[in-house]
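Data availability (excerpt). The following record was deposited with the supplementary files.
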Amino acid sequence: MAWLGQTFYLGGYFFWVGLWLAHHPVFGSNFAMHRDVWLRARDRVHRERSDIHDDLDLSMNLDPAVQVRYEHTLRVGVSGRPFATWSGFARRVRWGFRTLLQDWPEDTPWRRRAARHRLRVRT
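Predicted structure:
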């Protein structure tokens, strides 16, 4: 079960969401950020909502200039709760899709890529 979770659930999260965001997503169990990054993002995240993934919401609301680095050697154990029941797993999948689509069509993968590209061209 741990291999399935690591390979498909977390692996899928980092791969597919990374494509959507045009940068690595943060992962709630194991990430850190500078204070100034939070100060720029805190008014854009949807802290009042309990039906979305908060770490994904944060990932989506980071300033395009923020660089998210993924360090594969930093490891932390995570709970198997998402796999305890089918309904729990389905709820988390719904949260993920709801989070990705909450600002659609203003915020799309194509617009994210274009914003990051403009930043690279300027620097």
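Summary of structural features: Residues 2-21 form the longest helix (20 residues).
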